[in-house]
Amino acid sequence: MPVADTSQHTSGVAERYASSLFELALEEGAVPAVTADLDRFQAMLDESADLKRFVSSPVFSAEEQVGAVQALAAKAGFGVLVGNFLKVVAGNRRLFALPGMIKAFRIIAARHRGEVSAEVTSAHALTKAQEDELKAALKGVTGKDVAINVTVDPSILGGLIVKVGSRQIDTSLRTKLSTLKLALKEVG
After folding, report:
1. What gap in Å lies between CA 89 and CA 98, rounded to an integer?
2. Left (φ > 0), alpha (ψ -120 to 50) or beta: where does 116 sit?
């Protein structure tokens, strides 16, 4: 199976699960609480290589995955909706798509609030002031409030990669160095 097909399949799975979770959260008036729980789970994934491996590894049985996410949800104090959601995802052997589900949920929730969602990649964590400044700049460009999801990727060396809808702005040092390297090859 080509890589593109796999990512599209994962994306479709992620969107369906996220949409179902959002509808349940909306019915129960729990969108902010679910968003906070999902953000905390994403932070756990970002901080733990072991958890990341567990979520993406096909070697664990559905029962092992369900048991592990139940224990994790209980220890983290997640609400019932997110706890049950994680159990269903694990039981259906879809933990590998969980990061995409969280991303899709954020986009759906932002759209529901009348916001535009932006994916931001930074070489290091942004301070609250930097996030606020970035939101203000993006609001000036889009004309709407912007919800940002920041992912830390030290491999970009510096700068930001910002994606809003189909538009992407790449000011990363890695890209600038690659461009310079290509330019130097053409000169020589």
Report:
1. 8
2. beta
Q: Quick one: 3 and 84 in the same domain?
A: yes
60 and 10 part of one domain = yes
The whole-angstrom distance between residue 77's C-alpha and the CA centroid of its chain comes to 21
Q: What is the pLDDT of residues 131-166, one digit of tens each?
A: 999 999 999 988 999 989 888 899 999 999 999 988
DSSP string, 1-25: --HHHHHHHHHHHHHHHHHHHHHHH
Same domain, 87 and 131: no
List the structure tokens of 3. Answer: 């890589």
In angstroms, what is the C-alpha Rg of the chain?
Answer: 18
Contact 118, 163 (CB under 8 A): yes
The pTM of the full predicted model, rounded to 2 decimals, is: 0.72
**DSSP code, position 154:** G
